[in-house]
Amino acid sequence: MAERITVKSPSQLEKMRVAGRLVGETLNYVGTLIEVGISTYELNREAEAFIRKHGGIPSFLNYNGFPASICTSVNEQVVHGIPSKKVKLRDGDIISVDCGAIVDGWHGDAARTFLVGSVAPEVQKLVEVTRECFFKGAEQAVEGNHLIDIARAVETHAREYGYGVIREMVGHGIGTHMHEPPEVPNYVDPRMGKGTKLTEGMTLAIEPMISLGTWRLKFAADGWTASTADGSMAAHYENTLIVGKSSAEVLTLV
Ligand code: MG
Ligand code: MG
Predict the structure, then answer these.
(1) Is residue 218 part of a domain?
(2) Which residues are within 8 A (CB) of 149 and not within 5 positions of it... i.e. 6 or more apart?
(3) Ligand with smallest separation from the Cα of 171
(4) Which of 33, 45, 237, 245 is the most buried (most CB within 10 A)?
(5) For residue range 126-181, what is the model confidence (pLDDT) as tens digits?
């Protein structure tokens, strides 16, 4: 973890664009593979091969001991699900895929929640609104705003639908490390004040994690998988972006 918030130079941002593009392309590719019966092991294998084929290094692999190149979190699993041959996608599932890659020393990080077959309308809505929450937050990622503006925008949108906003996991700065300061929460924490003032050239990963029920998590015995404490369905949507003067530039959407 870097010690302080960094503002990236134009040449550094150019490298982050390259890393971000690869992460976005990898997620698009994984999206084409989603179908009933495929295992999360297979998705991981394909994602890792795709990243390496395009000159990247999967940043999740061995990160604090994580055993795979993507996180695959199905249904009530929120984040950090471990790919497995035993987990095969079923009709009506949703799967959140989180992916990170390093290119030339710079990181990209993004996540999508995909629908498998015929998904219940209320769950489809959750997935759609979680994506919208990211864009509500990203609109606030401009110079002069503060972190609380991002948090408030994400939380307000999710609350309109009565959804739970996960608190124990947050977005983050990103650059030569996957996780850099500052933390980017998806809810307004009165203890944080306004949070960091945003400056053009800061790079952030904004990542709403939203549930149909509680915001509380429980952790699996594998030490990684975080699920909603009440078993309600959860979605995750993340992009890496550059804070701009009047609008953010999203790096991981291609
Ligand atoms: Mg992240
Ligand atoms: Mg991520």
Answers:
(1) yes
(2) 140
(3) 1
(4) 237
(5) 999 999 999 999 999 999 999 999 999 999 999 999 999 999 999 999 999 999 99
What the block records as the tokens of 94 is: 């949703």
Query: Which ligand is in closest contact with the Cα of 110?
Result: 2
Closest CA to 186 of 235, 243, 252: 235
The answer to whether residue 3 sits within a structural domain is no
Distance CA 254, CA 251 (A): 8
Residues within 5 Å of ion ligand 1, judged at the Cβ atom: 109, 205
Number of domains in the chain: 1
**Distance from Cα 119 to the centre of ligand 1, integer Å:** 26
pTM across the whole model:
0.97
In a domain, 1, yes or no: no
User: Nearest bound ligand to CA 59?
Assistant: 2
pLDDT digits (tens, 9 = 90+) for 78-94: 999 999 999 999 999 99
User: If you measure from the C-alpha of residue 109 to the centroid of ligand 1, how many angstroms do you get, rounded to a whole number?
Assistant: 5
Q: Are 226 and 31 in contact (CB under 8 A)?
A: no
Assigned domain for 91 exists: yes
- Dihedral angle at the C-alpha atoms of 222, 151, 3, 23, nearest 10 degrees? 60
Range of the domain at 90: 10-250
